[in-house]
Amino acid sequence: MSHLLLLVPFAALILANLLPRRARAAATGIAFAVLALQTVTVLLPPLGLADWSFFNPVDAIIGLHVSMDNLSTLLLVSAGLAGMASLLAAGPGLKTGRERFLFANLVLVAVIGINGISMVRDLFSLYVFIEVTAVATFILVALRHGVDAYEGAWKYLILSAVASVLMLSSVALFLLVEGGASLEAVAHSLGSPGPIPWIAATLFLCGLFIKGGLVPFHGWLADAYSSAPAPASIFMAGIVTKASGVFALIRLAQSVFGDALAARWIFLVVGAVTLVVGAFLALTQTDMKRMLAYSSVSQVGYIVLALGGSPQLGIIAAALHFFNHAVSKSQLFTNAEAIEEQLGTISMDRLGGLGSRMPVTAGTSAVASLSIAGLPPLAGFWSKLLIVIALWQVGQYAFAAIAILTSLVTLGYFLSLQRRVFFGTPGAEWASAREARGRLLVPALALSLITVAIGLAFPLVLSLLLGGGQ
Amino acid sequence: MIIMTILLVLLVLAALWASLTTLLLRATIALALTSAMLAVVMYTLGAPIAAVLELSVCAGLISVVFVSVISLTQRRPFKDYIEMRRSRLTRFWPLPLALIVVGVALSFVHAPIQVALPVPGAEGDVRLVLWDVRQLDLFGQILIILAGVIGVLVLFKRESKDDN
Fold first, then answer.
1. Which candidate from B64, B139, B148 shows the least CB-CB separation from A6?
2. A347 has which bridge partners?
3. Within a domain: residue A134?
């Protein structure tokens, strides 16, 4: 069944391009339907592609040997949700039909890349699918043209190229010493004597740190997010950079590093530095998108920090925070798009008092902000709690304290955002401001609902994850 | 041995062309050519998987990424271009010198590296490597090229509109 998660979006991509020029508006609908199908079938296997056994002959011919586990499920669902939110926002967010058509194409390509990342079990294949996602993303950033867009795409491209060199060198070294690059072979080679396997592993980790925007490789991220068109920002911030950098880290921690002490220390130090630096950079921003971008850097730091905790709980905590962050950050970027669409600016110095004009946007934004800050009973609280427990279990009390204290900084900058944008009396220039259109409200409400529902039903979610034994 | 020497000489020439040409597109072609030569050398030395990876990644995939980047750039003013053509030999002379020094230094190093040599006969056929062992990556690379095509469409279509 798993290979269909690559082939169905690929078939949709071909179908979208076969449409006559007049009917190209349907491309967004096709992409949305594919992502909805992906989300439903992954969440509910009895309804899903698993029983479509008449597709088995396709597997025999094409043979894309991939496999799914609970970790894959989280990424596939996150990709589905973030993709659907961005496609809904493409209506108001992109001006021309041609832009919307190309955007739907690029989302489909990126989703195939993300689906591949979630299901491969080979370091080289992982690299290839990370590149699939990255190439689609460079173009998404540059979609609207202009100096800012080119600069954002350029920075992303250059750092991404450096990451590619590091990852390919790593794969080459593993091929040299182990004769293969499957995750099992890589894990085996790390147990053998000699420095080369660990040099190779460090190179691959550095590549993933760049792709994930971890400190000190975070420079490109804010430019890319803020210069991309709003629907692209929703998709990128929600899932793309997390999938290509952070998810791959979680996969390696789970399948390759196990409880290796050296890897745990790398995750602890890089994670802690990233979450602190990201949080303080977010605190100083005046542009809403840039603040959200640096907040993403900080939250990615949490995910990486969790990988340095106790092996099983650390990975579950990282995966859950990954999912929660994907949902909440997609939603906050949708809120930012709603504000930009209505007022033409997202400079927080100019905004204020929008709560009375845009109550739904204000309410959903508050839910997502508080969830990321880690307030109970929202979803973000539980994943942060698990991160702290995972660190506590291995005696990393100082790192657990850093995680808790930085949560306060996170709460600080999100409360500042709420105050500057939504509280107070609206200025005269915003007198005509209205609530956003339905296509931006629906994803914001749906994602908020998911955040609340996961928070309230968390014991069930956790038992499902633990029940899978992953 | 003669074929290998010819291949190595061609490899160095292609690499020099990539470094010295002043046009980015030509440099991309030269680099792809260098990778192709290197792939043949690797295959001749009994490393078919490395050869396939080199050919598909460096000659194919990276070239697409480079072309996408080049489409983001603007042409230099003609005066700068002439100046660059003049100065390129003086700017790049340390490059071959550094290569020779590193090569000589490395020849004195005898690092005990455990190398997993390929089993003779196994996976030796490029068709087998491409279609049975690395099928998933081939699919990924087709997608990257597709994304590159969409990228060129996005960037060049706009350019032609501006020109009008």
1. B139
2. A287
3. no
